[in-house]
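hi!! sorry for the late reply, been swamped w classes. u asked for the two structures so here they r. pasted raw, havent cleaned anything up. first the sequence of the first protein and right below it the C-alpha cells
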Amino acid sequence: MKIVVLVPQALLILMTGCSFQLVSPPARMVNVESARSAAPGETVVGAKGAAHSAVFDAGAAIGTAEVRHGVVPGVEVDAEATYVRVIDRDYPDIDRNIYAARGGFKMSNAGGWAALLAGVGGGVSPAAGGFLAADVGGSISYPNCYAVPFLGGTLFASQPVAAKRVEFRGGDGSVVGYDTANTTLGFGVSTGVEIPLDRARCRTGMTPARIQIGLGMDVLRPVDGEPRLIPATGDTSMQLTTQAKTMATMGLAAGVEFPF
C-alpha cells in the first residue's frame, strides 16, 4: 500500500510496507527558469504547470501563477501562487487540494549567466494543516536569444503550522494508519531550456516573451517522522512506529512568460 499526496504543509505520503508518513514540502513547487532577471522597471507575468510522480506512488498536478519585477540591474523581486491536486484513487475521503504562496528575489551577475535565488512562503492543506517554508538556491544558464539551457538547484526547510493528524481509513471505514507532519529538510534540482519568442526585444537586454520546458526532482527528509500503523487486530493501544524515510519525486514542467 502506497500513497503520495503532495501538500504544502503536508505532502501526504504513504510509503511501502504499510508505512504511513507525512512530510512538509517547499513553498516553490515549479522551478524552471534561466539565470537572467527582469530588467529594471520591467514586469513579467507567467504561468507554469507540472506533473510529478514517484515509483509506485501517487502523482500530483501542479499549477503556478507568478509575477516578476525588475528593481535595479540584475535584481528582481517575485511572487507566486500555487495550486496542487493529488492524483490518486486510494483513500478518497482525504481532501487532495493544496494552496500555497511564496515571495522572493533573484540576483543575477552582470553577464546574466548565474543567479542567486531565495524566498519564503507557506500554504495550507485542508486535510493536514498549514506550513511555512524558506528556500535558497542558484541557477546557471547560457545567455542567447535562441534557446537558453539552464541548470538550477535549491535547498529548503519547511515547518508545519497547526498541523492536523491525518487518518487513513480502509474500505470498511476503520483507521488503518495515521500521521502528523513534522519539520522537513530537502533539496531540488532542475534542468531544461528557455526559448525566447521575441528576439529583437531580447537583443536590447529586455526580457522577451518566452517558453520554458524542463525536468525537476525534489528530495525530502522529515527530521522526526513517526508514521503510525494500527495493528490488524484493531487494537489502537498497540501502536507501531517506523523510522523517518527519505522521499523523492520527479516531474516534467512547462511555462510561459510575458513582459509588460
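now the second protein. again sequence first, C-alpha cells right under
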Amino acid sequence: MITVQTTVNAPIEKVWEYWTQPKHIMQWNHASDDWHCPRASNDLMVGGKFNFTMASKEGAMSFDFEGEYSRIKEFSLIEYHIIGGRKVIINFEETKNGVKVTESFEPEEVNSHELQKNGWQAILDNFKKHTES
C-alpha cells in the first residue's frame, strides 16, 4: 500500500461534502494544472459506483477513473475498489488542526511507486486548497 495524507482546515461536514459531491470533485481532482476533471458521477453507498473523467486540458489524453464502494462510514471512512481490483482506503479524522485525510491505495504495476505517490499527493493537495478556499 502507498499512503498520502493532508490536514484540511475546515469542518468535517465540509470536507466530506467536498470529497464526495461531483460539483466539487470536478474542481480538485487533477494532479497538475494542465489536467482537469471535466466529468464526475458519484453514487456514495456500499455497492455504488463512481466515475471521474481525467483529461489533459488541450484534449490529447483522457481516461476514466472508476470503481465501486465496499465500505462507508459517514465523516470517517470510505473504501472502494478501482476497476481492475485495486483497493483504496480513505480515513477522515478530526484533529485540533483540522480534518486529517489519509488515503492508502494498492499501487498499479506500470508507473513507479514514487510517481504514483506524488500524483495522488498532488490531487490530495488540490483537494485541500479547494476545500479551504
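hope this helps!! also noticed smth abt the second:
The domain at 2-132 is CATH 3.30.530.20 (Alpha-D-Glucose-1,6-Bisphosphate; Chain A, domain 4).
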